[in-house]
Design brief:
By secondary structure, this protein is mostly helical. The chain has two domains: 3-126, no CATH class; 143-173. The chain has eight helices and two strands; from the N terminus they run αααααααββα. The chain has helices at residues 3-6, 16-33, 61-73, 77-89, 100-107, 112-120, 124-138, 159-168, and strands at residues 145-148, 151-154. A two-stranded antiparallel ribbon has the order 1-2. Helix 3 crosses helix 6 (112-120). The longest helix has 18 residues, at 16-33.
């Protein structure tokens, strides 16, 4: 789950500078990586973008994250996250309508209808909650986080540091 859903108070009025920085930085990061960066329409998280108040009703993000769990169960979690994030943040208006999601799944060899059926009565939300608990237990709040022997590595910019530590422990590529 995105931070705004996991910790709705993270973007409280006293800390709006966090939200403003993230809103600036994601576009800069996309440009740095040579990726499209278009504010999603609709935003997967329903929120007031002036106050950053998070709405109680969230029609998109819960389904997206449950689909992510299902994709991971089918050994395509990372690929699904990449394909869907490029769909949502790549400028596709109304990404949630028509065949956009089904087409994204099909491109990965996933069956969107089967996935939606699987999440209807599945334990996908419980998996998400267990992952959140593991993150809390690690002493961290953000993603991506990696835990190695009680040592937390936070952020994609720390993957190289994690790899260095793994090599120190004698693990090879």
């Amino acid at each position: 789950m995105p931070l705004a859903i996991r910790r709705a108070d993270f973007f409280n009025p006293e800390n709006l500078k966090r939200a403003k920085y993230i809103r600036i930085d994601w576009l800069r990061r996309a440009e740095f990586l040579g990726m499209a960066g278009v504010w999603p329409d609709p935003d997967p998280i329903v929120q007031d973008m002036e106050t950053f108040h998070i709405a109680e009703d969230q029609p998109y993000i819960y389904e997206l994250t449950k689909l992510g769990v299902e994709a991971e169960r089918q050994c395509k979690g990372v690929e699904f996250a990449k394909e869907v994030s490029h769909l949502i943040f790549g400028g596709t208006r109304n990404w949630n309508e028509g065949t956009h999601m089904a087409d994204a799944c099909e491109a990965l060899g996933l069956d969107f209808i089967q996935m939606r059926t699987a999440i209807e009565d599945g334990d996908h939300l419980e998996v998400i909650q267990a992952n959140q608990q593991a993150l809390d237990d690690s002493g961290h709040w953000g993603v991506p986080s990696f835990l190695l022997n009680d040592e937390v590595f936070f952020g994609q910019d720390r993957v190289a540091t994690l790899r260095w530590r793994l090599e120190q422990l004698g693990l090879k590529k």
